[in-house]
Amino acid sequence: MAEPAPSYVEEIAATAERPLLILCDHAGKEVPGGLGLLGIDAAALSRHIGWDIGAADLTRGLARRLGAAAVLDHCSRLVIDPNRRPGSATSVPAVSDDCVIPGNQGLDATDLRERAGRYFLPYHRAVARRVAVFRRAGQTPAIVSVHSFTPRMNGEDRPWQVGILWRHDRRIADPVLDHLRARSDLVVGDNQPYSGLGEFGFTVEFHAQRTRLPHVMFEVRQDEIDTPEKAERWADILADALAEPLARPDLYTRFDDVPETPGLEGFSWRRGSRL
């Protein structure tokens, strides 16, 4: 029997039959070992470096409107980033946006493997179990990933209120972009402020692109969703944008084969290999 997910991994059950899974990598700012693990104060942890502000409320709102299953990780990205491959330079950041993280200084390979085993793998195992439930039922699930981004980075304002990230599979991204761009009140980014054509992030690459599942990633600017009321508004906007592509029966099929994503060869969430 699989071990239950820890308390910082939130799972929402589907209320509709449609095979849809919403993921929120940076839902919270919990430090399961206490703030002493990182050596920073609560104010620093509450900044964008510790979590994706507003993303959890948006994810829950989308799940309600779409009847979707969802998995949210509330362990702070400063403990270990669930959207970065373990062992990579940004997996356990020693410095984030000029904030030094004392508890992440000088960690050796054993320390990093322990962090990954304790705080990285439980979330990804929960995601994989949800995908497996759909696959055992003969369904190919669609994956929607929810993130948020800061209004200003590296001294520059970011005008986009929402970004749609995609690579290879555009079956969700294109109609969503068309729907959002038809509105006169939104500035919409196509692979902005980050691009899925570069590094998409571990979660989507491993759970969706590697297995060729239909998928899309949303990046919503944090000042647009930093209160529950604002997040509910954006849940309405994005649910409306997703309605048309998610209603297509032919969406729930694997997309055409693509080259292996570098760095994921042989990675296993079960064994925790390559950690």
Please give a structural write-up.
The protein has 275 residues and is α/β, with parallel strands linked by helices. The chain has one domain (9-251): 3-Layer(aba) Sandwich (Aminopeptidase), CATH 3.40.630. The protein is built from 6 helices and 11 strands. It has helices at residues 42-45, 55-66, 109-136, 173-181, 202-209, 228-246; strands at residues 9-12, 20-24, 69-73, 95-96, 99-100, 142-149, 152-153, 156-157, 162-165, 188-190, 215-221. A 7-stranded mixed beta sheet has the order 1-3-2-6-11-9-10, sandwiched between helices. Helix 4 links the parallel strand 9 (162-165) and strand 10 (188-190). The longest helix has 28 residues, at 109-136. It starts with 8 loop residues before the first strand and ends in a 29-residue tail after the last helix.
Write a short abstract of this structure.
This protein is an alpha/beta fold. It contains six helices and eleven strands.
